[in-house]
Amino acid sequence: MRILVIEDDREAAAYLVKALDEMGHVAEHAADGDAGAFMAEEGGYDVLIVDRMLPKRDGLSVIEDMRKRGDHTPVLVLSALGQVDDRVRGLRAGGDDYLTKPYAFTELLARVEALARRNRPADIETTYRVGDLVLDRLSHTVTRADAEIPLQPREFRLLEYLMRNAGQVVTRTMLLENVWDYHFDPQTNVIDVHVSRLRGKIDKGFEKPLLHTVRGAGYMIREAGPDRGGEAAWARSGG
Amino acid sequence: MGALGRLIRTTAFKLSLVYLVVFSGLTLFLTAYIANNTADLLDSQINDTIQSEINSLSDQYERGGLRQLVSAVDLRSRRPGASLYLVADSSGRTVVGNVADPPLSLLGLSDGAATTVSYQRLDGETSRRYDAVVRVFALPGGFKLLVGRDIGEISQLRSLIFDASRYAIIVMVLTGFVSWFFVGRSVLKRVENMAETSRRLMSGDLTHRLTVKGSHDEFDNLALSLNEMLDRIEALMTGLREVSDNIAHDLKTPLNRLRGRLEETLRRGGPVEDYREAITSAMEEADNLIHIFDALLKIARMEAGSSGDSFEALDAAGILDEIVELYEPVVEDAGGRLTLETARPLPLKGNRTLLSQALSNLIDNAIKYGQPEGGGLSIALTGTVEDGEVCLSVADAGPGIPEADRQKALSRFGRLDAARSRQGSGLGLSLVAAVARLHGGRFMLGDAGPGLRASLHLPRV
């Protein structure tokens, strides 16, 4: 994946570029708003990571310009401002996701990867498949090995989100935001309990588990267990 | 000069001056107008009187000749307040009359023309001369009849009116100056008072307030609203001071712990695993610090009252449903029960995220501290409408908080000693209180008998 990082803090940017490279992506860096806008216009990126406050030019105006040009490359907005209205402003300017500094790299990586998949066919597919688990978005049914699994509406949406991002790490915060539409972190491990209940319904009694916990990062649904190398990389990046 | 100069520069002085000039002008105009009209009226009255006397005397002359005229003039001259009469022959010699040495030129006047003369009465003191309006009438046979009327009274009246207006203006100017002096001085005094208070406030003593006299005038209103503003500023400043004190304590403590742990690991050396563990725990500590910091910022932003633009019409019952749905599995897994009992709808204007977070904090707290001794966790959420307020409450069956400690529990970083050992920012309830205030409501802690009842009272739409 080609990623453009527009961030004025050189040390943070260097760390980010290096970490993204280690995860197998190609990251480029622009240190101010003008350079960032120029590079974005050149195009060819799968995802943009844009800091809100930049020298020379505000990050949000760079995004607004892109959208005016008809460029729909997904953008993750980074900001030290994390209040409700800041987030709304960031998304209104054309950002696709909003992450408040300081952030964990695992959180950023999971979000960037989810954004890159946003414009893929998964969004218009009516059925998601992971191994023998099938989720039908039209009839709202879930089957595993052809046996129907009854789910609560919220459990269905949780599974739907996980399956849309199959093979990708999904963090707890992403689940809270996308499944519950809550933009704060509860002190209690509410998400873990919901996921473990879902796991009880879809994995219990089957030899091969599909819903995996990625230590220090979040969850992932995939047919094979998380490959050792991948998990190690995540663990290294997140701790 | 300093005090007088200040007094002259006051608005009261400028206003007094303007009014003084305007009213003096009006008074002058009015008196001049009245004096003029009165004089005109008196003049025409005198002329009429003179004319009618001339008519009746000439009548007498025509009927009874000179003799009857002379006796009539003689009779009339003796009456008190009589007019002036003079009958002269063609050579100008006085035949009869009460005017001494009339100027000869007078008798040469043509018929009917009135003129003002100075004269001396025959019956009065010789030294005194009077002013009068006279007319001369030529009688057949060369005789001339002069009839006149004293105008001393009119002059007196005129000077009376002008004197009166002069005094009126003098009194007015004096009153103007005196009232300006006193009004200006009292206004200046109150303004000085305000300036003095604000100087004290600026020097850092925020406890001072402007004096409210209770007269309900504009100064009182100004003082009242300024005092309200000062209350708000003081509350904010106190809050800020508390926060900085608490930051010093509650943020420095974990930072210190963090630093100490890293230093210890570095000093001791050891296998990579040890380093790994130290770094992991350091990151957890950092996350906790970030969490505290975020909560502080959020509270500060809310107390500055700047999230109002994100308010929308909401049904709080829906918010309760969602939060119960989120927390039910956690509470059940802990062997407890989470129940919801709510009226529907609970209409209010607010921010869903903030209200949800407030409820989430309260449920988190109930899970952490609301475990009854030897019993299962039981958390009850209720939504009611009371006295035009939407009341959202979270009650647990735990040990509760003694009434004396409730205020402390609400203060920032106010963790009761029992809770200090457990992890948490100590900002949970402060954040809830800030959310309530931002929504124009209140946050209260009460007794759920047994247990703690934490409730948000928000204005209903």
Report on the structure:
- The complex is a heterodimer of chains A (239) and B (461).
- In chain A, strands 2-1-3-4-5 form a 5-stranded parallel beta sheet, sandwiched between helices.
- In chain A, strand 6 and strand 7 form a beta hairpin.
- Chain A folds into 2 domains: 2-118, Response regulator (Rossmann fold), CATH 3.40.50; 121-238, Orthogonal Bundle (Arc Repressor Mutant, subunit A), CATH 1.10.10.10.
- Chain A has 239 residues and is α/β, with parallel strands linked by helices.
- Chain A is 42% helix and 20% strand.
- Chain B is an alpha+beta fold and 461 residues long.
- The longest helix of chain B is centred in the N-terminal third of the chain and has 68 residues, at 11-78.
- The chains are: A alpha/beta (239), B alpha+beta (461).
- Chain A binds chain B through residues 82-85, 88, 100, 102, 104, 154, 180, 182-190, 193-194, 197, 239, and chain B through 279-280, 283, 287, 290-291, 294, 297-298, 301, 306-307, 309-310, 322, 325-327, 329-330, 333, 351, 353-354, 356-357, 360-361, 363-364, 367-368, 424, 428.
Write a brief structural summary.
The complex is a heterodimer of chains A (239) and B (461). With 239 residues, chain A is α/β, with parallel strands linked by helices. Chain A has two domains: 2-118, 3-Layer(aba) Sandwich (Rossmann fold); 121-238, Winged helix-like DNA-binding domain superfamily/Winged helix DNA-binding domain (Arc Repressor Mutant, subunit A), CATH 1.10.10.10.
